Amino acid sequence: MELRSKYSEIIKAEAKRLGFMSCGISKAEFLETEAPRLEKWLKQNMHGEMSYMENHFDKRLDPTKLVSGSKSVISLLLNYYPSEFQNKDSYKISKYAYGTDYHFVIKEKLKQLLQFIQQEIGEVEGRAFVDSAPVLDKAWAAKSGLGWIGKNSNLLTKQVGSFYFIAELIVDLELEYDTPVTDHCGSCTACIDACPTQAIVEPYKVDGSKCISYFTIELKNELPNSYKDQFDDWMFGCDVCQDVCPWNKFSKSHNEPLFDPNPQILEYDKKDWEELTKETFNEIFKKSAVKRTKFDGLKRNIEFLKK
């Protein structure tokens, strides 16, 4: 038992050294409470056209089916809260997409962490995940004591907020496990009241198919006219439910240079975005998550927002 505790300690210390905000560990096992919740959410079609959510149902709920022989899920948080923000008279981009695409940044850190574990502890097999595989990131992070799932369905952490990425290493090593923390949303309904499209249909339940992030990033067809004037000038993603969350008044800016934005993202106003060319799009968003919408997708979103 002492060895597990020692291993957990050195893994957490190395995670901190690599720049992660925090690290929590839980036992790799079937997510019993999540199973009926996920099944119901899918049955109610709250994933819209995100059909990939229906795939690998069993793997989503059981990491041992995803990584054979896995014993532990190491959950990690990486801060992305910026120190500077977009021009007030601009179409808005979700803060997580200001800098280099987080998949690349985090994957590299996870690779280093796994190498460290193998060097320090010995033959450990594992896989790194950054929301690119059927892993329920928020559920694992909550199980590992890194925060609680808030009414906006984001992971929230006391004294920190929610402007961070969540990632995992699933390994075949037994470690000391952390315990979940209690919910601190209380009677607050700030996120529910502020959501421009009423996507938070009840506390702790978000209809993904009504979310501005879904419309501006995932939806490939035309944007529905019934939502005209409800997007609050968001052209990529949406931060409203995080911006109004009282816990986010504790957010401190990140210290990851790769998350620093291209200056044009901060400087551009609405007119600049409306005149965006494909060349400029490729230049500004060369390594950005905004590339997911492609140039045509972003132009579609901007056209939809124009009064």
TrEMBL record:
InterPro entries: 4Fe4S_Fe-S-bd, 4Fe4S_Fe_S_CS, QueG, QueG_DUF1730
Cofactor(s) annotated in UniProt: [4Fe-4S] cluster; cob(II)alamin
GO cellular component, one term: cytoplasm
Gene3D superfamilies: 3.30.70.20
Residue stretches making up the 4Fe-4S ferredoxin-type domain: 173-205
Catalysed reaction equations from the record: epoxyqueuosine(34) in tRNA + AH2 = queuosine(34) in tRNA + A + H2O
GO BP terms: tRNA queuosine(34) biosynthetic process
Protein name, as recorded: Epoxyqueuosine reductase
Native organism: Gillisia hiemivivida
Record lineage: Bacteria, Pseudomonadati, Bacteroidota, Flavobacteriia, Flavobacteriales
